[in-house]
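Lab meeting, item 3. Inverse folding demo.
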């Protein structure tokens, strides 16, 4: 598919080389975070703040600069559909993650994010394990994807009990006018 797009003038804005990690109930670390919960509609503003921080770290730009309405609507939809989990002990979202739609094969955790001040404190591992534990009550496997060069995230996922499964490549195309 990429070669057809490329022949038609598409170029890669970025290429992500990812590893898919997966876990099953027996592999999870013995961690708990009872404060982890589904985001509620009243959490929308706090989740938007965390998502904006994550986006800025990833892309170096404000996600609302060009598509503010779509950005907020996407988050609101994930909250309505009960696909957004947060850890917000004092009202500020310090950890968040989204779930992809479930399938008979399992569920993928998407967009996990920890506020910078709380990284390397154990929050990320506890939240990730707790979320995986909840998912595994209904699904046989939990997966997530991580950039191959994101060593800190890889170590966190492995501490939580996730194991490398298979590689993936995402190509983000753009077309020159």
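The presenter then showed the designed sequence:
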């Amino acid at each position: 598919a990429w070669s057809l797009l490329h022949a038609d003038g598409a170029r890669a804005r970025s290429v992500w080389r990812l590893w898919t990690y997966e876990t099953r109930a027996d592999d999870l670390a013995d961690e708990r975070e009872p404060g982890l919960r589904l985001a509620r509609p009243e959490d929308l503003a706090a989740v938007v703040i965390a998502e904006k921080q994550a986006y800025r770290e990833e892309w170096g730009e404000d996600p609302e600069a060009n598509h503010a309405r779509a950005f907020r609507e996407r988050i609101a939809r994930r909250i309505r559909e009960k696909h957004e989990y947060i850890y917000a002990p004092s009202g500020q979202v310090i950890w968040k993650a989204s779930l992809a739609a479930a399938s008979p094969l399992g569920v993928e955790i998407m967009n996990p994010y920890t506020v910078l001040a709380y990284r390397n404190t154990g929050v990320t591992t506890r939240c990730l394990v707790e979320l995986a534990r909840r998912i595994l009550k209904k699904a046989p496997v939990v997966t997530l994807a991580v950039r191959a060069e994101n060593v800190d995230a890889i170590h966190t996922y492995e501490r939580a009990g996730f194991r490398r499964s298979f590689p993936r490549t995402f190509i983000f195309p753009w077309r020159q006018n």
